[in-house]
Structures are given as structure tokens and as C-alpha cells.
Amino acid sequence: MDFLQLLSWACIVFTVGMFSTGLTDMKTMRESKSTDNIQFLPFLTTCLNNLGWLFYGMLKRDQTIVLVNIIGALLQILYIIMYFHYTKHKGLVMSQTVAAGTVLTCGWLYFGMFLPEGDSRLSQLGLTCSVVTIGMYMSPLTDLVEIVRSGNVQCLSFPLTVATFFTSTSWVLYGFQLNDYYIVVPNTPGIFTSLIRFYLFWRFASVNQSSPSYKPMHI
Description:
The chain crosses the membrane at residues 6-26, 38-59, 65-86, 98-116, 153-175, 181-202. The chain has helices at 3-20, 22-32, 41-60, 63-86, 90-114, 119-138, 141-150, 158-178, 181-203.
């Protein structure tokens, strides 16, 4: 097994592990029969992101990208169905899902039919997926600022932080091996935001000794 194959397997294992952390929320929904304190949009945006990268992987003919995002999209769809089943705000969830479906359809028409086949299509799709992924990695920064102010890290998930760190690192190395900066660039912020979270866990671990300093993952 060469280094690229090793990185490929690392990307698959760590990314599927990161996507699987949503099983914690699914278990909580099943046990409580509600979606209180669980956000819907992360499931929806992650699903859209998976489908975008899936199309990119198909155009690039990269089996690693294709496999990871097929699994990721299926898991997100499962979470979305579970959320819709238990939520009290079905109208809002349905409208957000329809809006996401409209965006997906427009994207498919643009990238799949309007743009000619070749490097231009691949480059524009890669750029779009990269921007969305960077936005998803950077979106929790406002929460991190609040954690610094409050000194309370109980709202952070330590297993998710670990999974994100190893996932991002694997994809950055994989992208470098392929000389594909559409893979390298969007995953780099995931490394930095994970390191910030690790520091916050270390910095505020002893703030509240009577309870865990992070949310453990129970599956």
C-alpha cells in the first residue's frame, strides 16, 4: 500500500467517523421524542455540501471523494428524516428543505447542463464546493468567541473536534498528493479551528470540576 492509498483510507475512515457523530443527535431525538436544542440547518447544509463534492468526485473520477460523500449524504438524509419526524416545526423544516432542493436543482442545471464539459466545469464546481466548505468550517467561530468570554466549553463536542482535526488533516495531505488545491484549501481551516478548540478544552478544562469539560459522545 503506497502513501496515497493510505491517505485515501484515512480520509474515508476519519470523514465517515466525523459524519457519524450526528448519530448522537439522532439518539437524543429518539429518546426525547423531540428536536429541542438540536439544529436542523447543519444537517441540511452538510447534505448539500456532500452532494456537491460527490459531483466533483464523479467529474474528477476520484473514488475516495465519491465514496465518502455518498456515505455522508445518506447519513445526512437519515438525520433530516429523523428530524422531520420529531420536530414541532414541520412547516419551517419543509420550507428550508424545499429551498435547499431548489438550490441543488439550480446548481445541477448550471454545472451539469450549462457549463461545457472539461476543466472549466471542474474548476468552477471545485471553487464553489471549496467556498461552501470553508464557510461551514468558519461558521462556529462566533460560538468560540462566546466560549472564550464565558469560559464554559460544555457546549463543545470533544469527539467531533478530534474527528474534524484528523479528517481535515487527512484531506489536506491527500489534496497535496493529488496537487488539487480545491481539496487542500477548504480543509485547512478545519485544522486551525480544531486546534483552537483543543486549546479551549485545555484552557477551560478546570472551570467546572463538578461536570465534564466537554460533551461526550454516546452512541
